[in-house]
């Protein structure tokens, strides 16, 4: 892990603490709005679709596919890949990609969530190709 891009540590606050608590147990969580019945991410107190505060935490299966991606090679110590992953639940999340050949990443590639520690020892979610 030393010869790799250093993952940024999350900024944890009261609004997103349950999300990061779940991540320490290798669980990716989303929020479901009981008012408009929509899922959302990033987790927050008020639903971004309708403004309701009647939201609940739900666990994602952590499966999806790459919607778009970019590989950072210039001006960084080690290359890394970022992607928008479209989860099977139907929403997109911005994430790092890991355990893959950055030259072999493809739009539509199936991925699953994995968890790795940041430099501060806090586990965060990344995605890796399924095959
Ligand atoms: Zn809502």
Characterize the structure shown.
With about 130 residues, the protein is mainly beta. The chain has a single domain (about 15-130), classed as OB fold (Dihydrolipoamide Acetyltransferase, E2P). It is about 5% helix and about 40% strand. The protein is built from 1 helix and 8 strands. It has one helix at about 15-25; strands at about 30-35, 40, 55-60, 65-70, 80-85, 90-95, 110-115, 125-130. A 5-stranded mixed barrel has the order 4-5-6-8-7. A 3-stranded antiparallel beta sheet has the order 2-1-3. The protein binds zinc ion. Zinc ion (ZN) binds near residues 33, 35 and 36.
Topology:
Layout: H1 17-23, E1 29-33, E2 39-40, E3 55-59, E4 63-72, E5 80-87, E6 92-97, E7 110-117, E8 123-129
Parallel strand pairs: 6-8
Antiparallel strand pairs: 1-2, 1-3, 4-5, 4-7, 5-6, 7-8
Residues 33, 35-36, 38, 47, 49-50, 52 line the site of zinc ion (ZN).
Short description:
The protein is mainly beta and 131 residues long.
What is the terminal separation in angstroms?
A: 22 Å
What's the total number of strands? 8
Name the quaternary structure. Answer: single chain
- How would you classify the helix and strand content by structural class? mainly beta
* Widest β-sheet, arrangement of strands: 4-5-6-8-7
Summed over residues and divided by their number, the pLDDT gives a mean of: 93
Helix count, DSSP H or I runs of 4 or more residues: 1
